[in-house]
Amino acid sequence: xxxxxxVQGMYNKCSSGCMLDVGKWPVFALLxxxxxxxxxxxxxxxxxxxxxxxxxxxxxxFALGTNCSGCLGLGDLQSTIEPRRIDVxxxxxxxxxxxxxxxxxxxxxxxxxxxxxxxxxxxxxxNGTTNHGLTPALVSTNLLSKRVTEVACGSHHTIALTTDGxxxxxxxxxxxxxxxxxxxxxxxxxxxxSCLQNKVVVNIACGQLCSMAVLDNGEIYGWGYNCNGQLGLxxxxxxxxxxxxxxxxxxxxxxxxxxxxxxxxxxxEGLIYAWGANSYGQLGTGNKSNxxxxxxxxxxxxxxxxxxxxxxxHTSAAKTQSGQVLMWGQCRGQAVASPHLTHFSTTDDVFAxxxxxxxxxxxxxxxxxxxxxVAQSLKKEFDSPEISDLKFLVDGKxxxxxxxxxxxxxxxxxxxxxxxxxxxxxxxxFSYLVYRAFLEYLYTDTINLPPEDAIGLLDLATFYRETxxxxxxxETIKRGxxxxxxITLLSAAVKxxxxxxxxxxxxxxxxxxxAVTQTQAFADMDHDLLKNFISxxxxxxxxxx
Length: 545
Known about the structure:
The chain is an alpha+beta fold.
């Protein structure tokens, strides 16, 4: 439950930048359209998803809902069907928000400060008392000289991550979830050290009664309640200090998400591992057996870029590199035991429509329709005939573009368009798919092609001497290499003098030599390329007994 992942640079705000409709959450149903348009961040929480906070474009913070334990931060216990402003938070620029089941609410600001309010029966507000907090209060003990970037809450405990990669924890500690080495509640923030001493944490998450931390080197640690195996240690014993998940040795974890009693982890290769409780199929293993050790989830070879879970539910979700969203676990009362493909565009939609309660799993960041960044505006205008002044004709199809942008972005077009006033140019050398992808890249700085089609774009990038595009193509091809297409991709790398890609493909072929040499592509391999491949493979010792 946090706004931005900064885990090795892989994640952006709001589920990879998608525009969200807060109208999917019923608590916002009475807000007039003019108010909805102002919302930039939002969070829905509470035992019945009946409480919400949101931040407007003017950085004003509002709350509405049932206000259990004063969790709206309004200074009283009154419920409110209409939004009321939380004055103390206005202008604070919230960067991370999380909540417990009391509920208590904790935020981190752009200045690195932490504020907390709501239920405090177990000192989860970190102020040294057990009195509920009716208004947001600065959490100061041991944090005044620190800058906090991320917060995460379990049912009644809180953990915070600093810019130094340190973790602080406080609140309910019956199972060791504060990581202090005891089971005494922790009334104020205390640094979680032990095995985390001198290590740099980059991502945190909490289950109901456990805590997880991902390190900058890809290791993952867990502590607290473990009766369902949610710590991934291979046993069911609670842990009062952080323990490394040894079963993931050699696997590079970049993001962790915790459900009520299960855990999901994403690797740098786009794989998902799951462990813990599984009575609703929330591990995605195809059965309902708990797993005390990390188990890799079958996602049909799709590369994943995000995992999502929330400590209030048994629902799991994930997003693929191509933008597809999968869900499994408890989905509106049904137990879905394997990842199920949805039509949703974000993991947030899964929780809005299928989780019980239908709360947000992290702080949403909402881009309204009436404001677009420069990058978004350019992307929107690509291949739009309305104000374009040039079209390319490729394979009988039109692609609408803007001369000024092409001149700015590409030396080839600067030279070409300075010599001609034509408003239509025919292209014969490249396919429509490849040329459209090239022009779209000039508008977006990204490419969206499967690996086999990226070979054609690599050819174009080489021809136009577009070095960065060539590099992007190589990365796309690398991510999609398989035993079936490895020789085809190697041939392309050699043809277009992509040395890094050639070396990558060659090593892949050597590591999967038996399978690769049985493919049709190997049988059809160019004679000179085959001769060079065998010669180089022998130097690598590929044919030794």
